[in-house]
């Protein structure tokens, strides 16, 4: 049965990819991309990579689809045929595909027990994670502790992307400020009533994912995206300006930087206590308690930065869309 499900999902992935390649409508392309991410998340679940599936569903199928749809409203729904060169794109894809296939020739078979990752890396994490960190979720141990410096770099990348968006759109805007126009879906009372019920539940679930990542799939990245989705839902139904007032844009910008600062400060404090950068073992009287304290704090920093970055990026894009639509009118 598991093999049958894998074959069906793989067939759906192939069909979705081909449909995406031949789609002329950018809206359809975004929808196919979201479907592909959702199918990939299902695949990750079958491979017991639940944390990766969680991230793919929240980021790939969720927030990324919303941001791409927002971008389409600014750029137009259809491609500019004069600038579209399918033959050049096909040549690039074919050459890249051949190089990727050639690169896999020397790789070990998928799932092979003799693969370097299975022989040299995985055994240590599996056998020593409980003794070193003492939390049930090994994925959190790897991401937040063993490779905490790499995760710190990912948070910095998110913050840098936010700075780029604000630099291109927020700080360079022209014209008058957007008025308190009602949102396009404001007239749908059922949606507004249901959203008022769902938004608190979404925020509560985000907090659960944030502080329960040591024991189940989750963590700062997933929690941040889930929390941001509640604010985005509010903006879509009640208006961008209302959302900007509700979340206080100046405070949100400060929090985006504060999350990165919290993460980096944990490393600095570790060094001041005589340890290496992001070595949480020196943060408490014993190593295990120090690991727990460090993971909780840095995950909080990740969640704050990711949530505020997603909120700011969406609201900045959405506000520019409203300004462009007013100027067009």
Tell me about this structure.
- Helices cover 76% and strands 0% of the residues.
- The chain folds into 2 domains: 1-107, NADH-ubiquinone/plastoquinone oxidoreductase chain 6, subunit NuoJ (Four Helix Bundle (Hemerythrin (Met), subunit A), Up-down Bundle); 115-329, no CATH class.
- With 329 residues, the chain is mainly alpha-helical.
- Helix 1 (2-22) runs antiparallel to helix 2 (26-46), helix 7 runs antiparallel to helix 11 (249-272) and helix 7 runs parallel beside helix 12.
- It is a multi-pass membrane protein.
- Its main location: membrane.
- Residues 107-175 form the MrpA C-terminal/MbhE domain.
| Gyration radius, rounded | 22 Å
- Morphology: globular
* Tally of separate helices: 12
| N-to-C SSE string, H for helix and E for strand | HHHHHHHHHHHH
Largest sheet report: none
Q: What is the SS-derived class? A: mainly alpha
Share of residues in strands: under 5%
Question: Which keywords apply here?
Answer:
single chain, 329 residues, mainly alpha, Four Helix Bundle (Hemerythrin (Met), subunit A), globular
